[in-house]
Write a structure and sequence with these properties.
Elements lengths: L22 H13 L2 E2 H10 L21 H4 L1 H17 L6 E6 L5 H10 L5 H4 E6 L3 H10 L7 E4 L2 H7 L10 E6 L8 E6 L2 E9 L5 E7 L9 H7 L8 E4 L5 H5 L4 E9 L9 E4 L2 E3 L9 E3 L2 E2 H9 L4 E8 H7 L2 H11 L4 H12 L4 H4 E8 L12
Helix pairs in contact: 4-5, 13-14
């Protein structure tokens, strides 16, 4: 059962690259006939969030009955450790009477349920916390309500961070401590894809082939319409040769960083230095397929360029980024082995499953090494747990 992982769109990687005439594929083809090819970034946005046929509109994407599995679904220990991490941050900030705990992309609500269960061990935190879940999908919101029905803390749902800021104008302004967590959210913020050609850089997009099927295309850069700096691309990728694909991250972090007094923990799979290569991947029914095969019916994501995140936060003089560190480093420093040992001793019948889940989360060539974590704080704030020396 795959988690999201580094795997690109090279057609040679897939046994079957046929295009399925999904409702969104037909809609996209009609739009392309009228207006021409669209950038890969816009294609991914339509596939995931189209109001009529987008992937997240009505799908149970996560879990054994969905299309892929995430760390909180693999082991309860993941969410419990993130909850204890949040509790430690709250205590380091003075354990004031209030806390706004925000999760982006809560999935089925599994991680938040595990976090809240672990946070109950901290006196006063259960009554101090207000939970804010950022979820645009009505279907996933319904699943989260069921998962969190027994939660003690008050929970409010918001379709976006902008909606949270509109509803709570003081959010992230230091009046109440705020902690923001996000697991596998950045990978859905698809970057622009650029192709090196003999004449320079070109935009990679999605158009139509001679049969009218969706196909990858290239087109000249439009400096007036897209803030693509060819000189910066040459600086970051001096050895790129014709045919090479690079991804220029355009992380939509303005609303996130507007919560400037918050402590953020962001976990995702990705790389820590600018790299050449196509990382766009599609997952459907726990298997990989070509990204153009089933628009609107497969999960699409890309490997996160954490170096771009570092550069983005560096432009905010009030903020400081800690990390990145690998998921294995994060969980190891938070005590995953010790926690697993205690659970296994208390539940011998579940020991094998607990051990297998932890091994998967820590695997150096799998999730443990491919996933990374960063924390963002106000400059001068206490270093969050697990990030000392990072």
């Amino acid at each position: 059962m795959p988690a999201r992982s580094d795997r690109g769109a090279d057609e040679a990687r897939y046994d079957d690259c046929r295009r399925r005439p999904t409702p969104l594929a037909r809609s996209l083809a009609e739009d392309i006939r009228r207006g021409g090819p669209i950038p890969v970034r816009d294609f991914v946005t339509r596939c995931l969030h189209d109001p009529d046929h987008g992937y997240y509109r009505a799908r149970a994407a996560i879990g054994r009955r969905g299309d892929f599995i995430t760390a909180p679904e693999i082991s309860q220990i993941f969410g419990e450790l993130i909850g204890l991490w949040a509790a430690s941050v709250w205590l380091a900030q003075g354990a004031t009477s209030g806390l706004d705990l925000v999760e982006l992309g809560p999935g089925r609500g599994t991680m938040m349920a595990d976090m809240l269960r672990a946070m109950r061990v901290v006196p006063g935190l259960g009554t101090a916390a207000r939970i804010h879940l950022i979820e645009p999908s009505p279907h996933l919101t319904g699943l989260q309500r069921k998962t969190l029905a027994a939660a003690d803390a008050p929970i409010t749902w918001h379709p976006s961070l902008d909606a949270l800021l509109a509803a709570e104008p003081s959010a992230g302004r230091g009046l109440r401590p705020m902690i923001v967590v996000a697991n596998e959210v950045l990978d859905t913020m698809c970057p622009e894809q650029l192709v090196r050609t003999p004449d320079g850089w070109a935009m990679r997009g999605v158009g139509l082939d001679t049969t009218g099927s969706l196909a990858f295309t290239t087109s000249p850069l439009d400096p007036a319409g897209r803030a693509i700096d060819a000189f910066e691309l040459d600086q970051l990728h001096p050895d790129a040769v014709p045919g090479d694909i690079v991804e220029r991250a355009r992380l939509d972090l303005d609303a996130l960083l507007a919560l400037e007094s918050a402590t953020h923990l962001l976990i995702d799979y990705g790389h820590t230095a600018p790299a050449v290569g196509d990382t766009l991947q599609a997952v459907r029914e726990h298997g990989f397929e070509h990204p153009l095969t089933s628009p609107g019916e497969a999960d699409l994501s890309t490997s996160v360029d954490f170096s771009a995140l570092v550069r983005r936060v560096a432009r905010e003089p009030r903020l400081m980024l800690h990390g990145p560190i690998t998921q294995a480093e994060l969980l190891g420093r938070l005590g995953i082995v010790e926690r697993a040992s205690r659970l296994m001793a208390a539940n011998p019948a579940e020991a094998a499953g607990l051990e297998a889940g932890v091994a998967r989360l820590l695997a150096p060539l799998g999730m443990g090494g491919r996933f990374h974590a960063v924390a963002i704080t106000l400059r001068g704030a206490p270093t969050p747990p697990a990030f000392n020396g990072a």
